[in-house]
């Protein structure tokens, strides 16, 4: 019943089709087919050329797949920079800058040392990507249907914020164990070199709490980050097509659309890094400090300490976010999935407001 209701919601969503407004074809014959419960309307069919229908189970599953590919790959690619960033946050005396952090790490551990934590990063952020992107699409449809087509357009920023926050809540539960292991491997010398070593040690020392003690600060970091990531991206994309791109989106090639996607993703990534950085610092320090609480760590670091490692994180997150959106959109292109453009004002609202 849940997916049936979800499918009906998707079919009436203002985010439904790439180039046309949502409409249902009324069946006026009393003996006509009842294709949706208690309504004499025809269910919408997939747009010609699309591999699946927007809002179908297949669509949501493929969005989750796109999230796995985009988040898992990109986070693993920047493990060396992430490792140095984490070490700057937890030991600023030893690691004085980004370049110094790389130099010290290479001197002590060699090139191989820069890849520490790649396994928990890959598995953790793949699971997070599945929930983040897949559930975002689900919640966006659910909330849009709940408030109606006109309100979905008028309050679309709030819709993006609510859908992304809801998705990230569950995504962080999936990420937390691997994030804890990653930080432990990267910031605690001699603790473990691999995920297989880290997991049993963490479990033996602190039990299940070792994997979830950072969940609340992880929510504090990731939920604002994801809200900014999706809402800023969606609105920036809308503004780029409206004021910067010299032709309508439907006239752009797939390659040109992906370039715009990358640009909007990078802009969103810069803001993401700033709003989520203090909590990111707390998470890094918390997973290193045994028995400490998030409040204790924040108090110990102080206001200035909470912003340690911001510059490399802006570079990392800006690039990361842009790459994630690019890969996610490219997966949709490759799989011939529906790719709705920025929403347009519904005809009913235009009539009410007297807009031509």
Automatic annotation (TrEMBL):
It is a multi-pass membrane protein. GO terms for biological process: mitochondrial phosphate ion transmembrane transport. Solcar repeats lie at residues 58-142, 155-239, 256-334. One of its GO terms (cellular component) is mitochondrial inner membrane. One of its GO terms (molecular function) is phosphate transmembrane transporter activity. Gene3D superfamilies: Mitochondrial carrier domain. The keyword Transcription regulation does not apply. The keyword Secreted does not apply. Keywords: Membrane, Mitochondrion, Mitochondrion inner membrane, Repeat, Transit peptide, Transmembrane, Transmembrane helix, Transport. It comes from the Eukaryota. InterPro entries: MCP_dom_sf (IPR023395), MCP_transmembrane (IPR018108), SLC25A3/Pic2/Mir1-like (IPR044677). It is found in: Mitochondrion inner membrane. Transport of phosphate groups from the cytosol to the mitochondrial matrix. Belongs to the mitochondrial carrier (TC 2.A.29) family. This is Phosphate carrier protein, mitochondrial. It comes from Ceratitis capitata. The lineage of its organism: Eukaryota, Metazoa, Ecdysozoa, Arthropoda, Hexapoda.
